[in-house]
Amino acid sequence: MAHDEMSRRENRQLAAASATMGPWRTAAGVGAVVGATALGVEAISGDWSLSMLAEPAGWGLFFFFLTAWAGGQLRRDTGDRRLQRWTREHPWQSALPAAGALLVLNTLAQLFLGDAGLLGAFLVSLIPVGVLLAIAGVVNGVKEARGKG
Fold first, then answer.
1. 95-98 — which CB contacts under 8 Å span 24+ positions?
2. pLDDT in tens, the chain (149 residues)
């Protein structure tokens, strides 16, 4: 299943399918715990307003999508071996659905819960998306190095 043999549409479909392999309940739990912890820190240290929810929501969303993506990479109990192989061979493309959803949801959280405008919320949301994609690259590099060694 070479990358050159598949159309863009097929690659997008496989990326979306790989996003469904994540452990969503675990990811929701991790995101909720991280978001609640960040909210607790904000409540202790801060300014009581609606904008105090923006940062904890961003942290919760980031860890939700990171856990879902990483869990999908590590799972071995999914039935479709072709999808697992495609995910291993295309780590960046398999991380794009999670990164895109994180970008959209974090932008909305920053826009509606925070004090930022649309452009500011979008720019702030690019940071966790970049970190998520960087982690995808590091995880792939480590997996490849361990496989060759």
1. 95/69, 95/132, 95/133, 95/136, 96/15, 97/15, 97/16, 97/18, 97/19, 98/19, 98/22, 98/65, 98/66, 98/68, 98/69, 98/132
2. 444 566 777 766 666 666 667 788 999 999 999 999 999 998 888 777 778 888 999 999 999 999 988 887 776 665 667 777 777 777 777 888 889 999 999 999 999 998 889 999 999 999 999 999 999 888 777 777 776 54
The structure's pTM equals 0.81
Nearest to 133 by CA among 109, 100, 107: 100
